[in-house]
Every structure is written in C-alpha cells, then in structure tokens.
TrEMBL record:
Name this polypeptide is given: Restriction system protein
One GO biological process term: DNA restriction-modification system
Superkingdom of source: Bacteria
Listed Pfam families: Mrr_cat
GO MF terms held by the record: DNA binding; endonuclease activity
Phosphoprotein listed as a keyword: no
Source taxonomy: Bacteria, Pseudomonadati, Pseudomonadota, Betaproteobacteria, Burkholderiales
Length: 191
C-alpha cells in the first residue's frame, strides 16, 4: 500500500507553503522550548523540531527547482495552441522522463496508460482545452479504471473550470485533476 500524506496535516501544509515558513516554525518552537522548559530539557524541545526543519529543506529544494511563474504561463500558452497529437506526445515524454512506461490505447475514454512500479494510472486528456468540465468524462474515466483494475486516474485540463459535482466525484473515486499550472510543471519538469 502506498503511503499518502493527509492533505491538511502540518507537514503537507508546510510542503505547500514557502520554504521560509517551515524555518520560522522551527525558530518559534525552539525559542518557546528555551523559554518554557527547564534548561536541561530545552535542547530536547529544540531537537524535536528536526522533522519540521527537514520538511523546510524539502520545500526549499522543490521551490528552487520549480519553474518560474513566467515560464509556467509561457508553457500554458504553448500547450493551449498545440494540436492533440503534439500535446499527447508531450505528456508521454514528460512521464517517460519521470521513469514511467506509457501506452496509448486505441480507443475509449483513456488516452494514456501510465505505469510505474507496477501501479497503473489511466489518463484522460483529450478535453484539455474545454471551457467547462462536467462529471461525464470523469464517470467514463472511472468506469475504465474499474474495468482495468486501476486504482488511480488523472484527468488533464488546462482551461476552464471543473464543476463542484465533478470535483467531488473525482475526489471520491481516486481521480487526480491535473489543471493548468500542474500540467505546465509536469511538462517543464526535468528528469
């Protein structure tokens, strides 16, 4: 079973926050430990911040390697002008760079089958430029996931909004919605 961090846990929130927030939390906890604990135990309180310090280092590393907002916007503009075949090839190349094997099914709601470490993920990406995204393409993807025994799916979109019902359906059925900046970051990621 793959471990998944709770979305609202302290570590998950700190990973999504600017790197310096983690170090600020470490400083506050260390100062509080020094002020509130007996002198011989203050160092234990300060050492207890090590996991938060590590999360700060991970966040800093990720943010250092992340493409700039201007580069993300440039990539989104390029993606939105791509024809389907070129966009599909770009997605495939990005996942192959990440160490995945990618297959292109001949028909159906699944556009790509991405596998890594024995785990298959089905990807639906043909509606990437649609203005509105409802629940129906997600239902089709979920049906394909059930038929193939895939635990996860990815729905790719660069424009428009996902309806509230569709968002809830995706969350409840193991479907990750990869939207605009996420798509650009995937395509810009280095191996």
């Amino acid at each position: 079973m793959k471990f998944k961090m709770a979305e609202k846990s302290l570590f998950a929130v700190l990973l999504r926050s600017p790197w310096w927030v983690s170090f600020l939390v470490v400083g506050v906890i260390a100062l509080a430990a020094g002020a509130l604990l007996p002198r011989e135990y203050a160092y234990v309180g300060a050492v207890g911040t090590l996991p938060i310090f590590v999360v700060g280092c991970i966040a800093a590393w990720r943010q250092l390697r992340a493409p700039s907002p201007a580069r993300v916007e440039e990539m989104l503009g390029a993606v939105n002008s791509m024809p389907w075949r070129q966009f599909s090839d770009a997605l495939e190349a990005a996942w192959v760079r990440d160490g995945c094997t990618v297959e292109k099914p001949k028909s159906g709601p699944v556009d790509l089958r991405v596998a890594k470490g024995g785990q298959a993920t089905l990807v639906s990406a043909k509606r990437w430029k649609a203005a509105t995204h409802g629940i129906e393409p997600l239902r089709e993807l979920q049906a394909a996931m059930q038929a193939e025994g895939a635990a996860t799916g990815i729905y790719v979109m660069t424009q428009g909004q996902l309806s509230d019902n569709a968002r809830l359906f995706a969350r409840d059925n193991g479907i990750t919605v990869l939207q605009g900046p996420g798509v650009a970051n995937l395509l810009l990621a280095k191996a």
